[in-house]
Amino acid sequence: MPKHDSRLSERASSRRELKAVFNPSERRERAFLVGVEFRTRGRATPGNSALTAGAQAARDHATSIAPSRRIDSPDFSSEESLDELRSLASSAGAEIAGEFMQHRDRPDPATLIGKGKLEEIAGASASVSADVILFDHDLSPSQQRNIERVVDTRVIDRTQLILDIFAKHARTREGQLQVELAQLEYMLPRLAGRGIEMSQLGGGIGTRGPGETQLETDRRKIYRRIRHVKQQIENVRRIRAQQRQRRESIPVATVALVGYTNAGKSTLFNALTNASVLASSRMFATLDPTLRSAELPSKRKIVLSDTVGFIRHLPHTLVSAFRATLEEVQRATLILQVSDASSPISAEQDAQVETVLKELEANEKPRLRVMNKIDLLSPKQRESLRDDSQTIHVSAAKGIGLTTLLDRIDAVLEEDRPTRVRLRIPQKEGKTLAMLEARARIYSRKYTGGLVELEADAPESLLRRMREWVVE
Questions:
Q1: How far apart are CA 184 and CA 405, in angstroms?
Q2: Hey, which of 240, 304, 354, 418 has its CA 20 to 30 A from 51?
Q3: How far is CA 117 from CA 100, 141, 147, in A?
Q4: 65-74, 179-188, 306-315, 404-413 — which one is most confidently predicted on average?
Q5: Chain-centroid distance, C-alpha 433
Q6: In angstroms, rounded to a whole number, what is the distance separating the alpha carbons of residues 390 and 385?
Q7: Could you tell me if 297 and 407 are in contact, meaning their C-beta atoms sit under 8 angstroms apart?
């Protein structure tokens, strides 16, 4: 085939990469869930053996609002983990057909959970007519192939399920590129033995792109596509850096919202900026970064950034692929870490957020903890809540505590801090007076002899333009 025909074919394939396969009129896939707990590993995960100070504070908070619950580890129990897998499966569009929990001393190198248990799962999943088996654990390529031979059903691990949800929710070209890169890097070592499900003609959870009919026999094509996608993402990073440079030339602070998926970041973002970003109870409803301006009580402007939610064991390929997006977190002046105050596992979720922030090298940035969804707590629990210098309790959905949050942000940010001044401005300077009205907090105003005498809190950037009228 001539080179130009090959490029045309590749571009045509690229346009089909991330198309959704679920249609409301089609039958939802039936998923059989498999949870796994290894006793020898314990509940702690590598690199997460101790809580940071922030996560410890969240654990103390969780204990105070749910005293009957014992929190003895930053990681999830097997039941909590399986419950999260249910939410992930629902977000992918699956119908839960059945569940199975396996407790073992250590993982089986060939099949993760042992051939005997696999045969039990094969029978149980067949009895409920499951279309796919979802493992709440990462599987090596050989484990996935060995399991599929026994169960004779499509098998998806946790990472592939998360990638699939990302592919479903990516809307902008930037988001689609980032998801495609993560999918390609995940699929590459799994080509051997993968057949029609790698094709664009395949359908169902775990098959949304970026496959092509001959992926399993043409690794060079995948490598070429990876290089192309990385180049496009690099262009995105360059454009984003230019935009950020323009923003940073103006003294406007950037505040990034981070937190566990479904903690209410987008709802809070909308409440603070009057935006209309999609706010959904489904996991990873927000993938594409959104920037909007908001006004603080001092009338300073800030830029708020809504980011993708974190999750435990967030696939490394996703963290790498979304680095262009997550740079907004790295460069932010202040981080608002949003937590679900109504969740009994908010401490564990916050510990996972800490892990990702460390990977992004953003864990040392100034931070405020925002405990959201307090409207879902009982009246007695709400009465016991106390804000402090680092923690604010809010309900973004009900508008509770937002004024306190804005006051706290205003107090923390040093950029373009307001100064109390007295000004004497000629009344004919209408443009200057209007600017002062819009950007300063005015406490008194007096008209004398064609002049307006004012006392106000005004930002430094504004005062530099009004030096001649400042009264010493």
A1: 41
A2: 304
A3: 10, 19, 11
A4: 404-413
A5: 42
A6: 13
A7: yes
How big is the chain by its Cα radius of gyration, in Å?
26
Tell me phi and psi for residue 395, to 5 degrees.
-130, 105
pLDDT in tens, 124-160: 999 999 999 999 999 999 999 999 999 999 999 998 9
197 or 94, greater pLDDT: 94
- Partnered with residue 104 across adjacent β-strands are 38
Domains and CATH numbers, the chain: 3-56+63-219 (3.40.50.11060), 249-412 (3.40.50.300), 418-471 (no CATH)
CA neighbours closer than 13 Å in the CB half-sphere of residue 430? 1
Is the CB of residue 131 less than 8 Å from the CB of residue 67?
A: no
Task: Tell me whether the omega of the peptide bond preceding residue 297 falls within 30 degrees of 0, making it cis.
Answer: no
pTM of the model: 0.70
Asked if 77 contacts 45 with a C-beta cutoff of 8 angstroms, the reply is no
Q: What is the largest CA-CA distance in the chain?
A: 95
- Output DSSP code: residue 310: B
Contact status, residue 367 vs residue 412, Cβ threshold 8 Å: no
Give the containing element (helix H, strand E) for 254: strand 253-259
| Cα atoms in the 13 Å half-sphere on the side-chain side of 363 | 17
Q: 165 with 88: CB under 8 angstroms? A: yes
Sheet with 301-306, side-by-side order of all strands: 290-295, 301-306, 253-259, 334-340, 367-372, 391-393
User: SS3 of 89, please?
Assistant: helix
d(CA 63, CA 65): 6
**Stated length of the chain:** 472
What's the rounded Cα separation, in Å, for the pair 178 and 176? 5
Residue among 364, 345, 342, 344 nearest 354 (CA)? 364
The letter for the amino acid at 332 is A
Residue 443: Cβ-neighbour burial (10 angstroms; 0-12, 13-18, 19+): exposed
Distances (CA, A) of 91 to 85, 282, 349, 460: 10, 6, 18, 47
Interior CA angle at 410 toward 275 and 294, to 5°?
15
CA distance 47 to 125: 35
Number of H helices, E strands in the chain: 16, 14
- The structure tokens listed for 113 are 């959970």
Find where tokens 């300077």 sit.
429
Confidence (pLDDT) at 10: 44
